[in-house]
Each structure stands twice: as C-alpha cells, then as structure tokens.
Amino acid sequence: MGGRRIGVIGSLNVDYVSYVRKSPERGETVLADDFSIVPGGKGANQAFALGRIGCDVSMFGLVGDDDNGKLGLANLESAGVDVSGVEVCSAPTGLALITVAEDGDNSIVVVQGANKKVGREYIDRKFSEICRCDIIVFQMEIPKETVLYAAKRLKDEGKVIILDPAPVPDGFPDELLGYADYIKPNETELVRLSGLPASGFSIEEACRLLIRRGAACILASAGPEGAFCMDRSGNLRHFPSYEVDVIDTTAAGDSFTASFAYGIANGFSFDDSVRLAVEVSTIVVQRKGAQSSIPERREILSLIERLGIPAGRKAGIAFGGNP
Ligand code: RIB
What we know:
Helix 5 crosses helix 6. The chain is built from nine helices and 14 strands. The strands form four sheets. It has a five-stranded parallel beta sheet with strand order 4-1-9-10-11, sandwiched between helices. A four-stranded mixed beta sheet has the order 3-2-7-8. The chain has a single domain, classed as UDP-N-acetylmuramoyl-L-alanine:D-glutamate ligase (3-Layer(aba) Sandwich). The longest helix has 15 residues. Helices cover about 35% and strands about 20% of the residues. It is α/β, with parallel strands linked by helices and about 325 residues long. Strand 7 and strand 8 form a beta hairpin. The structure holds alpha-D-ribofuranose.
C-alpha cells in the first residue's frame, strides 16, 4: 500500500461473454465458440485493477441481493479493495452482455440494474466515507445526474477528479467537463463527446473543442496508437504504443484509467503515469476477460522498473489538472 487513497464511484456488473469469430450483422445469428461469466463493470474493473496494483482503494456503488452481486464483491475483496461502501439494494446486480470477436474487438450491452439506483441520496449517505479518499474516479454506467452531483461536491472538497466518460450518455452535461481534472475517453467516446463527425475525425480538433468547453486535460486512449493528451496549453502530445496480438479488448480502457490514477496517486509525473497506462492496457488486450486480464502487482512493479519510472517520486502534476 502507499500513495494517496483512491475512491471509485461507479458500476459493478457481471459479464456474460460470448466469443465469436465475427460479431453478428444486423438480423444475423451467429454461433459462439466459447462463453464465460466473469465479474466486470467499468467501476469495479477500475477498483480491482487499483487493488491489484496495491493501491489503497475503496469502491462505492450498489449491487443486488443476488449471486452476481456476491461474485463481484468477492472478486474485489480478493484484490484488497475496500467494499464497505457498497450497498445492497432491491434491484438485480448490473450485467453486461459482451460479444468478443476473433480480432479482439468487443461490443457491450449493459443492463444497468442496481447501478441505475446510485443516486444523490446514496452519495449523501456515503459522503464522509468518500471524502476519506484523495482521488475520485468516475465512469458513466451510473446516472449522469449522480456523477455530476458527486463530482461537483467532491471538487468543492478539493479532490482530484478523474472521469472516464464511458459510455457517453445522451445529453452529457457539459458542466461535468469543468469538474474533472482529467478526462479519459477512447476514440469512440471522443467522437460522441465532441459531437464532431466520425468521418475525417481529428483527435486534435476534438480535444481542442473539449478544452474550449471547459475540460482541463483530455487523455484520449487510442488503442494501438497509444494515447493523445491535451491540456489548456492546447498542445497535443502523443504517447505511442506498439502492435500486439489482440485477444480481447475488454477492460483495456478501465486498466488504462486505473493505471493512470495509480501513477498520479503515487507521485509519478503526468508523463510517467500516461506511459504506465499505455503499457498496462497493452498487456490487458493480450488476455481474455475483464478483471481476469488485469496484471498482478509484481508485473506492474517490473513494468515500472522497465520503464525507468522513479518509484514514489514526488514530481507534482506537470501537465493538466484543474486548479
Ligand atoms: O469496460 C468493460 C466493462 O464494460 C465490462 O466489464 C462490462 O461490465 C461493461 O461495464
């Protein structure tokens, strides 16, 4: 353990994953080669990754009084995540129907279930517990109104806010851009957030637009291209990756966000935090599953060593951040 404490406010799901040669076209039925039921949910995946790395991390959210809820919580606990803030409610635990094609790409339908019940009252009830964390990580599988409400209150408390805007909801509240210190969309989410046409899409133009709309720092993950970042200076910076054999992209974005948060929590420079995030998500796409694909602490530590990241350096936040 070490570094600043991280709170993850978000979804806990169980993933029903079918592995197919090719995702079905509209109106088409395809046969799966394999199927598995595994713990998932963008919030839980991020908390799990942080726990595995050895962070002091608490999960906040809701599950149902069912086996899926128990499965998700047990897995988080096995990674050392504090789940005392997770409540059980009358709705069923969220679930995700995931199709993974042979090229590793996935499509996901989330049935929100209990995640949909994470409202203001829950945030109010848990507020003092959440405030024990220094860095708060959000995604958007709980209601957008709740994310907005919590981010605003926590920003007022001086917390560092990391927003993974996945999935981008209809009517995304622009006000939220201004409460986040770091926003981590993937390319699809960047298209939706910016409202720019997908054809001829420019990451640079989209980032610039979001900065103009109030974002402090955009950290866009871009698959095999690595990541692109822009803060209020308006300079686009590229953190490259490399080609690997992609098996399953599920949780690649979640592990990216978690590794970045880990870096910031442990005083790594912004650049080192992004480099670590790119590397970890590159490992994750080469493995099957959501939480099952997330590297163990020893792998992360040797990665940190290989990248030459000075452990525990108090480098401050050299890029981005929302004063
Ligand atoms: O990011 C991957 C996750 O998205 C899956 O685990 C699934 O539960 C959905 O939330």
